[in-house]
Q: What sequence folds into this?
């Protein structure tokens, strides 16, 4: 994982240099943000991810990573496999997968919103994020302060908001009343590390009034950070086109598993299966993949 350590160090240096240009230099402690072992119960990485929600599974023609971190994911397993799973869904997954093609397993999981991938299926040319110019953004001067609306949960998105809060932005974390951030209950200390510097606003995004309040927030924001799939915003009437029409200079930071647009935009991903999809794994002498760390 030497290459990963170098990449993290390079990102930290870039954040420090760019934030200094905006007014307040942010020195990212890579160990603090990339290691949550002091706040979350983790096991050794291997066939299972350290948090024990994701497992490497052999298919008929290769390996897949299956991540079932939510109760709803476990409930979807019978529909995914097309049969009852009894008291031990993982035993059924392992048995059924051995006779199915990896591509078929991934395709069916995708229809159900399950985070399942083929190990090493993604090859990126660089770790750089894609930038999509929208109307009004071209030639804009760098933003110096302002409000950031953080619509994310778990780790990656909240970390982005934490860096911006440290840089001097006013960050508002919007909590969903119906789907609260599970990290707050599962690991209060880690949640506080990522979110303590933000103000909080709880909204029911199924209610028209609260959706209108969110639209108003976005209209006055410098940035928004999201981790939901594009169709979630379409369903709320908050498509990028609608949001940018009201705020052409907004910067939209989208944390995604397989990209905001294109064929993978509807795919769900979390840290451990995303690492497996990107090939951030170690291989045994027998040619079997193993997790190399926590949500790499």
A:
């Amino acid at each position: 994982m030497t290459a990963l350590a170098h990449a993290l160090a390079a990102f930290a240096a870039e954040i420090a240099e760019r934030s200094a240009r905006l007014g307040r230099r942010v020195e990212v402690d890579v160990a603090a943000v990339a290691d949550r072992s002091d706040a979350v119960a983790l096991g050794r990485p291997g066939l299972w991810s350290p948090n024990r929600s994701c497992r490497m599974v052999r298919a008929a023609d290769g390996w897949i990573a299956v991540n079932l971190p939510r109760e709803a994911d476990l409930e979807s397993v019978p529909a995914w496999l097309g049969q009852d799973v009894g008291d031990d869904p993982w035993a059924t997954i392992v048995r059924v997968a051995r006779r199915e093609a990896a591509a078929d397993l991934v395709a069916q999981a995708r229809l159900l919103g399950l985070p399942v991938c083929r190990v090493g299926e993604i090859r990126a040319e660089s770790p750089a994020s894609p930038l999509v110019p929208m109307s009004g953004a071209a030639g804009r001067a760098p933003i110096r302060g302002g409000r950031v609306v953080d619509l994310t949960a778990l780790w990656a998105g909240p970390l982005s908001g934490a860096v911006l809060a440290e840089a001097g932005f006013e960050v508002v974390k919007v909590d969903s009343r119906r789907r609260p951030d599970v990290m707050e209950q599962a690991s209060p200390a880690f949640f506080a590390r990522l979110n303590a510097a933000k103000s909080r606003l709880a909204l029911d995004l199924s209610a028209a009034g609260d959706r209108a309040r969110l639209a108003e927030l976005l209209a006055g924001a410098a940035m928004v950070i999201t981790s939901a799939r594009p169709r979630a915003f379409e369903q709320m009437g908050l498509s990028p086109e609608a949001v940018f029409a009201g705020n052409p200079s907004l910067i939209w930071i989208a944390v995604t598993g397989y990209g905001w647009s294109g064929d993978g935009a509807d795919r769900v991903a979390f840290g451990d299966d995303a690492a497996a999809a990107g090939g951030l794994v170690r291989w045994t002498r027998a040619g079997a993949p193993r997790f190399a760390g926590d949500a790499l």
